Amino acid sequence: MIVIIGSGMAGLACARRLADAGQASIVLDKGRGIGGRVATRREGTMQFDHGAQFVNAHSAEFAAVLGTLSVADWQDGGGRTHSVGVTGMSAIPKALAAGLDIRQKSLVTRLQQVGDGWVLDLENSSLRSARVVVTVPAPQVAGLLGQDHPLVAGLAPVRLAPCLTLMAAVAAPPPFITLKNSDDPLSWIALDSSKPGRPQGLGALWVAQAGEAFSAAHLEKTPEEIAALMVPLLCERLGVASDRVTHAAAHRWRYARVTQALGQPFLCSADGTLYLGGDWCIGPRVEAAWTSGTAIADAILAQG
After folding, report:
1. pTM of the entire structure?
2. In this predicted structure, what is the pLDDT of residue 172?
3. What is the CATH number of the domain that holds 14?
4. How many CA atoms lie within 13 A of 108 on its CB side?
């Protein structure tokens, strides 16, 4: 049995490649949804891509995969074209996950090697597996394996930064589609309702993502406090009064952006039974997570 911990893009890519080669796996995830940061938040009739805003392919293989998923072109107003999920970014992992054995609300608390396999401790049960693939954020790996595990030391160079995200509905004409400024507290602002297949007639639906410094400074505040801080900043950039904001909510991504990658697709134990991977191995792109997960699956398949 192969168990994959994490149903983000790396975990799903690994499971998908294995399944396409006839090798079954079980994907465990502590959350209620799949896709990790490739996500869509729904608030009544409104929806917001509050994680990854789009995806672009840099390799022919990933471009071919995107061609099989639920994506469409989106013009960002600055002359650039991106691929986005339809009807939300969450449509991408959902399509990738079709037919896979994914078990949500399954929190793995400890991972221990026993003999020639592994025992995974869950909240109320345990599971044995010959091989385990861990695709959680790098800072969370030590909590599963223990700080003294040999592979944990290999994660030392990896750095991830947080990101605070505001989702807002504004009853005013949009002055732009996207605004990007890495030096601004709101480093990325996007008119989410301008993407293909999004709900219309609900006003302008915006996603604003804070820069690294702002996010780190306010990371431990409540979502309500974060929204209260970010709404005035968004209104200032849009040139509107705060009373034009009809809905506002915030989300905290603790491990959102890869600022220093590992520099290789994955880490593997000497006996080939434990793999660590994710976007943090390669870089801050959705494709990087997919590449890491796919490379792990190929390595497992090569073992036979």
Report:
1. 0.96
2. 96
3. 3.50.50.60
4. 29
